[in-house]
Design a protein that fits this description.
Layout lengths: L1 H4 L10 H11 L2 E11 L5 E12 L3 E8 L3 E6 L2 E6 L4 E6 L22 E6 L6 E7 L6 E9 L2 E9 L4 E11 L17 E3 L4
Parallel strand pairs: 6-12
Antiparallel strand pairs: 1-2, 1-11, 2-3, 3-4, 4-5, 5-6, 7-8, 8-9, 9-10, 10-11
Length: 200
Amino acid sequence: MLWAALGVQTVWASSGRERLDWFFERVSSLDAAFTQEVYDEKGKSLQHATGRVELARPGRLRWEYQTPDRQLILADGERLWTFDEELEQATVKPLDEALGSAPVMLLTRRGNLDQEYEVREVEGLDGLNWVEISPRARDTEFDRIRIGLDERGIRQMVLFDRFGQKTVIRFDRVRTNIAIPPAEFRFDPPPGVDVIGDSG
């Protein structure tokens, strides 16, 4: 099959929850392009960004913004780095503190989500099956996340924060269960970069 030749696996599941479970249980790595749109509480677009994401479970993520400004969010399995190239500044924090401030880290988890999240299916849009995930703990910056999936896995995420803003992320050219070099998940601050936090 063409999808197999391209490194894209398919899942024959009929519901959003089945596809979500398959994604978290069977996908060990992912590479994709993304577009991201942020809206205010009235639906006005505040920011449009594009970039690339790579992840390897558990705990490793490279989320790289390419436009409008270059910025990198990188999890190396122990720490979460955020690097702003223009400001020449990097912040670092322990990975177990990351999910509250970086919801995309949810994608690096493995296995069932029910212990820490309420998961329910919601109405489908854009030809996708959708589930909504709400954290059981209330110390996160986001209120809920909607995930849209098709037979190849995750295609969209919609993040709702506690301030009424909405972030829509669309994934394209998705490849799963491919080999990603470990160096992609290693961050060495360039000379002259101000590092905030304990880099170990």
